[in-house]
């Protein structure tokens, strides 16, 4: 049986904002650590203050402006009536196909940052132990609920 590629849909544009906010929060923590390192280095040696903070800050800004959108563009998904296809990855490309018949539990989650951008995460729990959880972030809440409802109806129609 040959694999036929399914055309993938991009994630919602609002998810790019979510990724940028999350990245900025991570870089703020890194910046706080850099300030402590900078103070320590200035106190122990005569390295001018701002050396470490400047490097971390510059890399953080470059990351938020250029690397985050590149990561966002590499995500895609497709939902047929029988399967959910999820593809992501920049260096290592991952393509996951989840048959609806393998789904045991479905979650739709939305944190405060996601809520502000009107996106949600669809989480599918499948049979098995390894890789039994597939998360699709960055789709609209309505789309996540629609997929959830279709899968739930398929699960309830399945003969036990």
UniProtKB/TrEMBL annotation:
Keyword annotations of the record: Membrane, Transmembrane, Transmembrane helix
InterPro entries: YdbS-like_PH
Pfam families for this protein: bPH_2
Domain YdbS-like PH: residue ranges: 72-150
Annotated transmembrane regions: 21-41, 47-68
Protein name: YdbS-like PH domain-containing protein
Organism: Brevundimonas halotolerans
Classification lineage: Bacteria, Pseudomonadati, Pseudomonadota, Alphaproteobacteria, Caulobacterales
């Amino acid at each position: 049986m040959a694999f036929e590629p399914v055309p993938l849909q991009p994630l919602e544009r609002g998810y790019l904002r979510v990724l940028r906010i999350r990245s900025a929060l991570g870089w703020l923590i890194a910046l706080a650590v850099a300030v402590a390192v900078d103070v320590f280095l200035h106190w122990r040696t005569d390295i001018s203050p701002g050396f470490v903070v400047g490097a971390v800050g510059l890399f953080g800004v470059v990351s938020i402006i250029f690397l985050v959108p590149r990561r966002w563009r590499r995500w895609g998904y497709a939902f047929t009536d029988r399967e959910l296809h999820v593809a992501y990855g920049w260096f290592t490309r991952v393509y996951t196909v989840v048959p609806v018949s393998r789904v045991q539990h479905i979650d739709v989650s939305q944190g405060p940052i996601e809520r502000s951008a009107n996106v949600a995460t669809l989480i599918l729990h499948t049979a098995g132990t390894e890789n039994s959880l597939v998360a699709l972030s960055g789709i609209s809440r309505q789309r996540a609920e629609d997929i959830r409802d279709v899968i739930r109806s398929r699960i309830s129609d399945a003969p036990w």
